[in-house]
Amino acid sequence: MTKAIKFVYIMILFLPPILVGAGEIPYHQCKFDMECMLMKCVPGKVNVCSLGRCYCVNS
């Protein structure tokens, strides 16, 4: 039982950065859109700062 719980915690910690390139999961804190420029998105998407997080959204 405890091994399963540890596995879930590890997945929660490491899964979002893996999926950032494919989806619209935020992983960088920001105040302005300019702070998101270094974040890499999939081609056809742009960086936007919304609610204090950088997102890759359709252009």
TrEMBL record:
<feature type="signal peptide">
    <location>
        <begin position="1"/>
        <end position="22"/>
    </location>
</feature>
<protein>
    <submittedName>
        <fullName>Nodule Cysteine-Rich (NCR) secreted peptide</fullName>
    </submittedName>
</protein>
<keyword id="KW-0732">Signal</keyword>
<dbReference type="GO" id="GO:0046872">
    <property type="term" value="F:metal ion binding"/>
</dbReference>
<dbReference type="Pfam" id="PF07127">
    <property type="entry name" value="Nodulin_late"/>
</dbReference>
<dbReference type="InterPro" id="IPR009810">
    <property type="entry name" value="Nodulin_late_dom"/>
</dbReference>
<feature type="domain" description="Late nodulin">
    <location>
        <begin position="1"/>
        <end position="55"/>
    </location>
</feature>
